[in-house]
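Inputs:
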Amino acid sequence: MPLIGALPQPITSAPLVILIYVVLVLMVASALATVFLRSTVFATGAFAATMVLVALLYLTIAPFLLFAVQLLVFTTVSAALLVGVLRRTTGLDSTQEPFSREWIIGAAVAAAVLALLVVIVASTSWPLRPSVNTGAGLGGTLTNTYVVGLGVLVVLLASAALGSGLLLAASTLHRPRGR
Amino acid sequence: MNAGLNLVLAASAALFAVGAFAVVARRSVVLMLIGTQFMFMAGSIAFVAFARFGFGAVNATAGAAVAIFAGATAVAELAVGLAMAALIYREHRSLAIDADRG
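Outputs:
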């Protein structure tokens, strides 16, 4: 199998670097907005924006097919599912008080996780080696190298679609006996 | 000024932390599910970054393939989770995770 000639290098093209920085900052900001907005409708919009920004990040560092799948499939399906549930419910505004006990615990957990990940990223010297170019694109990799995984994924998605349909078709939750 | 592995991994870590915060702090089922989506996305971004910048994958497109698997799994999880959220709402007229505590 032919090797790519050089080791993977950081991106140094100024416009692309600026674009990546802007996309990453906006991505984290819109994720924070999703979590902190009180209206679930606005939170869903911010979530969709985060998904679009992740797709833009993929456009800069990943094969085009991943960008297309992220933008056209994952973003659309996730937003449609969320909007569908919000249309079936009316509990759109959060009744949870900001800076409640849960928020403090959540902030502590998130800070601990972030600190751990940042320490690991900063203190580790990741080994570099050339990637192998098999000549096949992402589509070829999925259908040749990971064909079993793709099959499992199809079964998983079909099961999820069937399961969620059955759940929604159920008239009510099953209660334990004696209640 | 350049953009490399550590930059993308740091953003991925931040996204994962935001997702963890949503899962722990928010009581709305919808927002908790969105938090898990963020955690899935953070993992996908890390895989893509490693394949693009760092530890060479066996195959140059392996990171993107894993990202597709993770994204599809996240969508499946969201579908089932939202169906359960709709059931909870039907029972308790609330999307709060502790709506059945009385």
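Remarks. The two ends of chain A are 65 Å apart (CA to CA). Residues 1-5 of chain A have pLDDT under 50 and may be disordered.
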